[in-house]
Amino acid sequence: MTKARDVDPSEGIEQYIGRTVQDARLALRKAKFEGHEWTQSYLATRVFVAQSRISEVETGDVPPDTELARNLEKALGVRSGTIENLVRILNRESVRDYAKPYVRRLSEAQMIHDFGLIVPGLLQTKGYASALVLAGQAGDPKDMKRFVDQRMERAKRLWEGENPPWMTAIIYEAVLRSDMGNPDAACEQLQHLLKAQEQPNISVRVLPFGAAIVSGSFTLLTLSNGRRATYTEGFSTGSYSDETAEVMRFQKVCDRLAEDAESAQRSSGLIHEALKRFK
């Protein structure tokens, strides 16, 4: 039987989560709850992950995502929200400072207008997001994986919520041509865009070659209370603003780009054509 590693919960939220999970598991093992030994391997079978994943959680090396947090709470008999809420706090804290206001307001958005030279984060697949992170970041692979997982979770919460927003995404045609160094991920991403296009609340429009473009990317949010905000992002930098003048400036840019963009129907045809290059 593997000896439990002593984790100092004062080191950080990851370690506090790990200690919470470990203490709950060891308490069940001591009581031989339901006649089981409650090893990491046994807990792993209860929450449908590998034993190594439980080890990562308990040591604080890689915290759980919210789905695993909920499963751990149920399996260990921990009060609902005890672990999940800590994970949500951790996810917010690990977002770059300049992006925090945007992430907080995203859940309140009723309408989203986006332009970018890459597929917007809310419409990215995991493989595509991973390729982007790998190209643009250097560091611990565990941190990079967490960044991608958080992006996927934000999108899932938004689109699977009770009242998902309306989204219009304008993407430059060059996005359809790049294989990101991973043709399989690029193919999957294009298929995902077509699937998103079928949703009544999502419109993907392609800005063709030859049209004027702007550098970086920007997003316009219309919140449930009617207030509006804009978020711009470049490489390792970004800016959030709810100043009316700034929002109107980006609205004008968005309108001009929309005038030159293909219709949603024509854009779907361009995506289908691009897919043929990867098959």
TrEMBL record:
It comes from the Bacteria. Pfam families: DUF5753, HTH_3. Gene3D superfamilies: lambda repressor-like DNA-binding domains. Residues 38-83 form the HTH cro/C1-type domain. GO terms for molecular function: DNA binding. SUPFAM superfamilies: lambda repressor-like DNA-binding domains. InterPro entries: Cro/C1-type_HTH (IPR001387), DUF5753 (IPR043917), Lambda_DNA-bd_dom_sf (IPR010982). This is Transcriptional regulator. It comes from Streptomyces tubercidicus. The lineage of its organism: Bacteria, Bacillati, Actinomycetota, Actinomycetes, Kitasatosporales.
